[in-house]
Amino acid sequence: xxxxxxxxxxxxxxxxxxxxxxxxxxxxxxxxxxxxxxxxxxxxxxxxxxxxxxxxxxxxxxxxxxxxxxxxxxxxxx
Length: 78
What we know:
Elements: E1 2-3, H1 10-20, E2 28-29, H2 37-46, E3 50-52, H3 59-67, E4 73-74
Parallel strand pairs: 1-2, 2-3, 3-4
Helix pairs in contact: 1-2
């Protein structure tokens, strides 16, 4: 598992995730900002699963991600 903590833009996330592929990580956590669903999808196209959702506080974020199938793993705040 590797957590980028929303620190990358989609292009940099894609580049880094591709370089990490040989390490067969269990998942990549929040490579791009949480609100960038399309950027997250781009990362997911390279590495699956991508984890996100721990910083979503309202149903809307989960709804948008599920509707667009933008996340492979989500986590709900407790």
